[in-house]
Automatic annotation (TrEMBL):
GO MF terms, alphabetically ordered: chloride transmembrane transporter activity; oxalate transmembrane transporter activity; sulfate:bicarbonate antiporter activity
Pfam families: STAS (PF01740), Sulfate_transp (PF00916)
GO cellular component, one term: basolateral plasma membrane
Compartments, as annotated in UniProt: Membrane
Organism of origin: Mustela putorius furo (European domestic ferret)
Membrane topology: Multi-pass membrane protein
Domain STAS: 540-692
Protein's UniProt name: Solute carrier family 26 member 1
PANTHER family referenced in this protein's UniProt entry, alphabetically: SULFATE TRANSPORTER
Amino acid sequence: MEVSAEGAPQGTGPVLVRRRSPRSLGLREMLKARLWCSCTCSTQRAWTLVQDLLPATRWLRQYHPREALVGDVMSGLVIGIILVPQAIAYSLLAGLQPIYSLYTSFFANLIYFLMGTSHHVSVGIFSLLCLMVGQVVDRELLLAGFGPAQEGPGPGDNSSTINTSAAVAGLRPQDCDQDCYAIRVATALTLVAGIYQVLLGMLRLGFVSAYLSQPLLDGFAMGASVTILTSQLKHLLGVRIPRHQGLGMVVSTWLSLVRGAGQANLCDVVTSATCLAVLLAGKELSERCQRRLKVPLPTELVVIVAATMVSHFGQLHERFGSSVAGDIPTGFVAPRVPDPGLMWRVVLDAVPLALVGSAFSISLAEMFARSHGYSVRANQELLAVGCCNVLPAFFHCYVTSAALSKTLVKTATGCRTQLSSVVSAAVVLLVLLALAPLFRDLQRCVLACVIVVSLRGALRKVRDVPQLWRLSPADALVWVATAATCALVSVEVGLLAGILLSLLSLAGRTQRPRAALLAQIGDSGFYEDAAEFEGLVPEPGVRIFRFAGPLYYANKDFFLRSLSSLTGLDAGRAATRKKERGLEARVSEGDPVEGMDLGPETSTAALVSTAAGFHAVVIDCAPLLFLDAAGVATLRDLRRDYAALGVMLLLACCSPLVRDTLRRGGFLGEDQGDLTEDGQLFHSVHSAVQRARARHRVPAATDSAL
């Protein structure tokens, strides 16, 4: 590759720069080197491995109590106070007893404290994952023949057939009641999802979560929030309706709510309205006064404590039939290995859980790391979140991930390190050991209010759609389609639809990138889009083409159409016509081409290029990200067709990856040495244009001499 004198320092001559020949190891040598490196054992290497797997062993040695301890303790206490009511509330979504949500919060905080690389992320129960877990639990309960698909008598009770067939099939376990079987399903699902996440981390596949784009995640959160809101309306109203499953769950639930609205419990309706008003007012006050308040208002805890006392002393369950949380035992249950049979049944259900949990955890960790000036490791985050699911699955816990709302509270209360997670776990442990029975008379409608108010952030994202549409209609379409599919069909189908639309959007952007002809900016060596800027100077006889995207099998035809449309010459068709008229080696005089008499081949080529208005085409390859085999073949055929017409094809600003691909694809003619590469690849567009001028002057001078 040449370097012209335009870029040389003043006072020196032209400098010849050649690319070093790459030194590549063979596959056998590369595998041998990696195997030797991984098998080498030493004390230092073992300690480094321990530090990589348990980052807390590294940063704890550098911990400064005077600077960070107060903030960590304060944020840990606040998060622990918030975790308790949310854990009890989210048990409604998961279809499990509240004690299991407390177990999950306790173990997840301790494990992420040891293995997480983020200083601020709060890992624990997450409403979207609780909803997905609850759907799987309900389905398996129905298949096992446990009770009707509703929390009391209501329309559409067709469970007798299901129960009988399930009992005949032998699906109902003999040593387990409904609550026991529900947590067995949840732990089996959790273990499989955690194994997926650990495998992703071990295989260094943390980048996979990047394909779940932010519009996809926001749309998924919006659609899932609508589903969660719909599922909690029956608790807000005290209506006993079937818990619908499968496609169209939201629509079916709304229809059941309309039919059963007359059976609403007045006590639950009044309690829900009061709690919603207090919670929303508290949230608005906290947001408006967040600069003055060092600690967010514990509105959820205040509401839950007050509601529990009113329910207990007012005997709302006995007098008005209001549903309550029920007995919450203290202490821990003996660990149990998840059922392998159930694990096989939920293998596919665990895939969306693992993907959603990984994507939200990694994106939150990276977002807060950027805002606070440190870095996180995506693969280690996968391992950490995976272990937060694998290990607690043996202790009656279910799926966890990072949660945005609690992470924001953590940062607002002065969190500096993950030591705050230990404090939060201690608060949850206190509740587990002593305070859990105090929530026995807590109304379920109050828990539903806590869940509904926690959805405010996700539901507010609908206001971002107009701005997203102005910025990128494709991203807005992904957002709307994902949200609508989640709400109207199902959460799993919505996630799949969002992934497919995101990939199609990405493929569409690379399939039809922007193409333009460039012109010179005055007398400088820079060139820009002639259709976008005014006052540019076009180069006579040279067409400079820019293709702002990769050249691969899906867009090679668009590349050729764009080039022929902008230059006014379809090289393939023109070369084919010339070949059909017997001009392969030499054109006989008097043989017409395009209605003209042509002489020798050189004269014919000159006439063709003159009719086209140019004698050279320069392709600016700076935006060309990569080439595949079809792209190399396209450039090779294009060069052949242009050569038949007397038009030069030159490439400028090729990246090392593109140069290597061209060399391996035979475009540069390795058997001819470096001459071919130096004659076709140029470090700048201006040097390629200068070479085109020089080559055109030589034939012109020869013809004039003759």
